Amino acid sequence: MLFHQRLRDMREDHDKTQTQIAEILGTRQQQYARWESGQWQMPIEHYKTLARYYNVSIDYLCGLVEYPRKLQ
Predict the structure, then answer these.
(1) Among residues 63, 58, 66, which one has the least CA distance to residue 38?
(2) pTM of this structure
(3) What is the mean pLDDT of each run of 10 residues along the chain (72 residues)?
């Protein structure tokens, strides 16, 4: 799975809108939509923020592993 697909899936699994996640990241919905569509690369700092928010490892968010691991 590609990283931007995982971003969308995680957001939808938590019943959040792009606007809500953009607020968590301190950016605009339009910017987040570009990351989620794969048009632009999201900065690593935002991956760290989302990993903490969703309580999953960054390797899961990036699509490197199939199953999420909870943060310790």
Answers:
(1) 63
(2) 0.86
(3) 86 96 97 94 94 93 85 76
Write down the residue that tokens 């909870």 correspond to.
Answer: 70
Query: Residues near 13 by Cβ (< 8 Å), separated by ≥ 6?
Result: none
Distance CA 59, CA 39 (A): 20
Burial of 57 (0-12, 13-18, 19+ CB in 10 A): middle
Q: Give residue for tokens 């607020």.
A: 23
Contact 61, 49 (CB under 8 A): no
Q: DSSP letter at 28?
A: -
The pair of three-digit structure tokens given for residue 9, joined into one six-digit string: 């899936």
